[in-house]
Structure formats: structure tokens, C-alpha cells
Design goal:
The protein is about 25% helix and about 35% strand. It is α+β, with helices and mostly antiparallel strands. Strands 3-1-2-4-6-5 form a six-stranded mixed β-sheet.
């Protein structure tokens, strides 16, 4: 079964696309994140395509962060923790 990622995608007409990415087990297994909103569920291929369209990415969970590192959005040393969950942030500053 392919890995699934939960996405909260927000559009700002002036600034662009803001995406928050959650590993599936974060939203289903971590109490703090259980009530978080998401707008779609995607596989890894769809996730990478969406990431290319964003001006801001917030990653929650080791699996999506590993993809962010592989795709050069996140530096491995830029990973932090929030409520016991790995988190990383990318912001496109070329705007």
C-alpha cells in the first residue's frame, strides 16, 4: 500500500500557495494533531508535484521531512520537534 500524506492547501491570490504536510500517522496517532484540518490525501508522487507549486511548506512527520530533504526543500539540520513530532519549514524567498 502506498504511503499517504495529509495535505492542508491554502491559496492566497497575491502571495501563492501554502501547504502543510502531515504523515498519516501524525494525524491519526498524535493527540495534539487529531483535530487539524486537511484538504486532501495524496501519495508520494502527488506530494512532490504539489511541493513544486508552493511558496511555503510545513512538514510534520519523519516520512514527509525525508522527502523534503531529498527534494532539497529542507536541510537535515533544520528539523525541530513540536509536541514530540519532527517538524520542518520551507519558505520560498525568491518571490
Amino acid at each position: 500500500m502506498p504511503q499517504q500524506f495529509y495535505i492542508d492547501l491554502r491559496e492566497n491570490p497575491r502571495l501563492g500557495r501554502f501547504i502543510t504536510i502531515y504523515d498519516e500517522e501524525i494525524l491519526t496517532g498524535v493527540e495534539h494533531f487529531k483535530d487539524k484540518d486537511y484538504t486532501m490525501v495524496v501519495d508520494e508522487e502527488q506530494l512532490v508535484e504539489l511541493m513544486r507549486t508552493a511558496v511555503s511548506l510545513i512538514f510534520y512527520g519523519r516520512r514527509c521531512i525525508e522527502i523534503g530533504i531529498r527534494e532539497k526543500y529542507i536541510h537535515p539540520e533544520a528539523v525541530s520537534k513540536q509536541n514530540g513530532v519532527d517538524v520542518a519549514i520551507y519558505i520560498d524567498v525568491r518571490i
